[in-house]
């Protein structure tokens, strides 16, 4: 296993290394934007690196147009994910398209088990596991999942050509979902719980200019109803004299839940939302563990901010390895 020296950044073999070719300077858990960026930068710093991610590109693959990533005026989420993957693969790192399923300590190193039943060992971890969609938690949501209830306009919007669609959410993401769905549906209701839509100004204006989209503020869904498929929703208030709103689909965009379970198992501190707490150097409270992206407690979550956190995480790991050349793999119970 290679150790980085302070003096020359050269790799040396040490007797403390585990006699296993799968001992890495860093294992990056997650293959989204942050994970791929971390892999790229770790490759640049000549770290023996493994990126472990079951869905390369992550949720950015489900984004129609990306217009706020520096260097690209406009491209699709899939195009951005592909560029990040290609950049990462241009360096001598390993990328395994499997999900991390378990983690544990091994002395001052770490074990990571994957969905391919293999176990990998690392001197540092970079956790970039991202998040999953938050659900409404109302009657009918689970019953009509994928039969009218969806979480991705790009994935499922085409099923509702010339149909009536509801989007639930008040964020910029909800605004963009409504704009995508307006290209398919005959009518799009954007249900905002608060007093106004809180998208970026350019997207708020696009929503306002789109004749297919109607924004309903201070409006929430209380129940989703139908037979085989969604036919209508029950609202918390009356709209045009009725609290029944006919719709063929409900697209939920109310935020995300951080996938921080593995980090929590290792004792990494999280906030009230279970987001990993990091500092400006992407360090956690556990020595040798760093984090980046949507799983973290950063207020503003974007692909570009996650990438920046990933670069900081890798550099912090690099400094840690340089300053601790005696790191060795060992049984966690010793």
Give the gist of this structure.
By secondary structure, this protein is α/β, with parallel strands linked by helices.
What's the main sheet like?
A: 7 strands, mixed
The CATH topology of the largest domain is given as FAD/NAD(P)-binding domain
Could you name the CATH class of the largest domain?
Alpha Beta
CATH superfamily (homologous) name of the largest domain: FAD/NAD(P)-binding domain
At CATH level 2, the architecture of the largest domain is 3-Layer(bba) Sandwich
Q: Mean of residue pLDDT?
A: 91
Give the oligomeric state of the chains in this entry, treating copies of one chain as homo and distinct chains as hetero.
single chain
What is the SS-derived class?
Answer: alpha/beta
Q: What would your notes on this structure say?
A:
- With 334 residues, this protein is an alpha/beta fold.
- It folds into two domains: 2-133 and 256-323, FAD/NAD(P)-binding domain (3-Layer(bba) Sandwich), CATH 3.50.50.60; 149-252, FAD/NAD(P)-binding domain (3-Layer(bba) Sandwich).
- Helix content is 22%, strand content 28%.
- The protein has seven helices and 19 strands.
- It has helices at residues 33-44, 77-89, 153-156, 172-182, 201-209, 261-265, 303-323, and strands spanning 2-4, 11-13, 23-29, 49-52, 94-96, 100-106, 109-114, 119-127, 131-133, 149-150, 164-168, 187-192, 213-217, 221-226, 230-239, 242-246, 249-252, 256-258, 289-291.
- Strands 3, 4, 5, 6, 7, 8 and 19 form a seven-stranded mixed sheet that branches. The chain has a five-stranded parallel sheet with strand order 10-17-11-12-13, covered by helices on one side.
- The protein is elongated.
């Amino acid at each position: 296993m290679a150790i980085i020296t302070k003096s020359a950044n050269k790799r040396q073999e040490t007797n403390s290394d585990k006699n296993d070719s799968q001992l890495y300077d860093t294992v990056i858990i997650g293959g989204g934007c942050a994970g791929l960026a971390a892999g790229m930068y770790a490759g640049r710093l000549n770290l023996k690196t493994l990126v472990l991610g079951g869905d390369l590109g992550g949720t950015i693959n489900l984004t129609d147009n990306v217009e706020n990533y520096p260097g690209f005026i406009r491209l699709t989420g899939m195009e951005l994910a592909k560029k990040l993957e290609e950049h990462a693969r241009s360096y001598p790192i390993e990328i395994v398209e499997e999900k991390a399923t378990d983690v544990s300590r091994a002395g001052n190193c770490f074990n990571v088990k994957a969905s391919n039943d293999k176990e990998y060992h690392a001197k540092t971890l970079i956790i970039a596991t991202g998040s999953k969609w938050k659900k409404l938690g109302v009657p009918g949501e689970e019953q009509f999942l994928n039969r009218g209830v969806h979480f991705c306009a790009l994935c499922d919007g085409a099923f509702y050509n010339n149909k009536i669609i509801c989007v639930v959410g008040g964020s910029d993401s909800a605004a963009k979902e409504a704009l995508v769905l307006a290209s398919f549906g005959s009518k799009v209701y954007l249900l905002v719980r608060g007093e106004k839509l809180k998208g970026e100004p350019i997207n708020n204006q696009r929503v306002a200019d789109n004749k297919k989209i109607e924004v309903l503020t201070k409006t929430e869904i209380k129940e989703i109803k139908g037979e085989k498929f969604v036919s209508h929703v029950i609202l918390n208030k009356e709209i045009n004299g009725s609290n029944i709103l006919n719709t063929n689909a409900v697209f939920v965009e109310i935020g995300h839940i951080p996938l921080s379970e593995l980090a929590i198992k290792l004792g990494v501190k999280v906030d009230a939302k279970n987001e990993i707490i990091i500092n400006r150097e992407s360090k956690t409270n556990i020595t040798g563990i760093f984090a980046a992206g949507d799983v973290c407690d950063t207020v503003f979550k974007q692909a570009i901010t996650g990438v920046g956190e990933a670069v900081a995480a890798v550099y912090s790991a690099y400094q840690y390895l340089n300053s601790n050349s005696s790191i060795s793999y060992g049984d966690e119970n010793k």
